[in-house]
Amino acid sequence: ASRSAVVARAGASEPRRAESRRESLAKGAALAAFAAMVQTTNVGAALADRLPEETDVKLLCDSACEAALVDAETVTTPSGLKYKDIKVGDGVQPEPGFQVVVDYIAKNEQGFIFDNSLEKGKPNDVRVTGDPTSANVIPGLDEGILTMKSGGIRRLYIPGDLAFPKGLASAPGRPRISPFSPVVFDVKLIYIPGME
């Protein structure tokens, strides 16, 4: 009796397996058709190379500012940090060890935003140190802020060795930053508590 039960069960499962194979073939054909469409329309490249469009993003540098930056002087420091002043501040310059209050927008090399303090609704307090080994933020940001004056806005082009040595996993919908990848920060030095 047990042998016939096994045969009966095997016979009963046979149609399911055939149906499963048919479904697999159909799914495979559908995927192949989709892949062919993606290749011919170049949708795949667009999907792979881009994140969803950002709408109503708060920025420190609008389109007029971006146009002005094209002709702005680029300063390169001995460490390899590069920057362009969007607006030179008229306040005081921070000293190492002081806390500063900044707004910033951080982008990857392709210009996709991975962090934006303006969207969070409050600026960040950062202690600048002038020492890459003890900086509370990435060394390139620390160095770039130290030569600003309050009220200033600057674009920092931070090389990979002054950025995120371990990389950075970002929020959903935001790009991931690979280890030692260059990044770009727009920074506004709002004020320096204790110095102003």
TrEMBL record:
It holds the Pfam family FKBP_C. InterPro entries: PPIase_dom_sf, PPIase_FKBP_dom. PROSITE patterns: FKBP_PPIASE (PS50059). It catalyses: [protein]-peptidylproline (omega=180) = [protein]-peptidylproline (omega=0). Residues 1-13 have a biased composition (Low complexity). GO terms for molecular function: peptidyl-prolyl cis-trans isomerase activity. Residues 97-193 form the PPIase FKBP-type domain. Residues 1-22 are annotated as: Disordered. Transmembrane segments: none annotated. It is an enzyme of class 5 (isomerase). Keywords: Isomerase, Rotamase. Its EC number is 5.2.1.8. This is peptidylprolyl isomerase. It comes from Micromonas pusilla (Picoplanktonic green alga).
